[in-house]
Amino acid sequence: MKLHSLELEGFGPYRERQRVDFDAFDADGLYLITGRTGAGKSSILDGVCFALFGAVPRYEAGDKRLRSDHSGPNDITEVALEFSAAGERWRIVRAPDYERPKQRGEGVTLEKARAELARWDGTGWRGVAAGPRDVGVMLAEVVGLTQAQFLQVILLAQNRFQRFLLARNDERQELLRTLFDSRSYDDLTRRLDEGRKSARDALDRGADAVALVRRQAAELIAREGWGGDPVAADAAADSDLEAADLDASDLEGALARAADRRAAIAQTAVTADAAAVAASDALADARRITDQQTERAAQRRRTAELAAAEPAIEVSRTELRRALAAEALRE
Fold this sequence. Notes:
The protein is of the alpha+beta class. It contains ten helices and eight strands. It is about 55% helix and about 15% strand. The chain is rod-shaped, with a radius of gyration of 56 Å. Residues about 235-240 have low confidence and may be disordered.
């Protein structure tokens, strides 16, 4: 956005029409609006803000002070601003509410606020919007900033700057938040601080966990004899400080010795498994032999019983032969 000219009439301290040609300073690049207190510097900024947004932040009580105290009953109050934005040149003419004499009869009547927005088409000004509401909607699209955003990043109201200079530190910080809408940065700072505290707590918990693991490792090394120096390992098991002094080489050495121990135990387990299989086979053979021996003893007892009963059986056989022979002679 670039300002070209500003015209004030019956506005602020100016009764007659005043024109500021900003284009006259193009060759100077950056320029400064300066002057003694009351010279009208703020009135120029007030005129720019009023033309664009219909309000002046310096007068927080309202627009009643916008009309010049020097204006006569029939004098008008009007601000005209030419500027470039969105790749085109614009002209806004705006007037506030003010009282004027009635054209007929006595007394005064209220002159309603008005606003007109025009666009330069290369040959002249062509109206695009009229009325404070329609002009405000159109300017919001052209300028791309709300009044609050405009006052935060482009035009800092004089009364707010005075309050800032005279404020205490806490009030100054609150004013900066209001002027520059730094709540998002405050929220970001708060979240970062919470994240820092959470990370610190997690780090402390991790450090405690590592210390506990180191102590357990020292105790295990001492108990299992995996340390290179049994005396030092015993001391490490009894001292948190020395347990914390266990370095990677100590742990790697203990792991290597534990791996050797595990390999030896695994080999012993393989041998024991083979011995268990052989013992199981021998036990099965022994049980089979025992069963055979038991069966043989039972058969021997049965044979002895049958041998003892042989005479009686022979008598019975003889009686059976005689009976059979006698049966044939029965008739």
